Amino acid sequence: SYVLTQPPSMSVAPGEAARITCGGNNIGSKSVHWHQQRPGQAPVMIIYYDSDRPSGIPERFSGSNSGNTATLTISRVEAEDEADYFCQVWDSDNDQVVFGGGTKLTVL
Amino acid sequence: EVQLVESGGGLVQPGGSLRLSCAASGFTFSDFALSWVRQTPGKGLEWVSAVGGSGGTYYIDSVKGRFTVSRDNSKNTLFLQMNNLRAEDTAIYFCAKDLEFAPRGPDSWGQGTLVTVSS
Q1: Tens digit of each residue's pLDDT (9 = 90 or more) over B38-83
Q2: Which one of B18, B45, B49, B74 is least enclosed by Cβ atoms within 10 Å?
Q3: How does DSSP classify residue A52?
């Protein structure tokens, strides 16, 4: 089955940029979606189809996807961005939704 | 506004059964696929099953033959029948609305219902 690899954790100071990667074999040929999950809450989709942003999601969130890596970028991190972030694709070879293991973002 | 409300979780013994339900509102229910995603506390997200707008069903390998997903478009409700439950099925189960008519991944999530499999 298709595997998505994320760094387990990362830390960033407020106002700095955070770049969370999601690795997968030729992931650039797939559509990648990103979900944010704050502690004790349900996930929320923050990026869909690689780089589109749902209404209500701040502009500081952006996405890109090419080759074997998709990237979620938070341009100026705020304290409220402390959360777990999961990338996700549709694995058409196995007809399954696949999630990455998640990245815990800590705001220093 | 999309709303998804799960129910039916609880404590069940190994080998037992549970039926989860998800009441949906705020969108044209029949136009979208729907998914169940689970999460063990403190762990990551694991997609479990989906049903497309056409009724086609999809499962993760570990639940094939034990879980059955279905939908009632007349009642805007999604179901997950879980049989022969195992300890490793213990998790919070989220109902999710998909991006498209065919499964592609969630764009809206419910708050989840806890399933505990233990003797």
Answers
A1: 999 888 999 999 999 999 999 999 999 999 999 999 999 999 999 9
A2: B74
A3: B
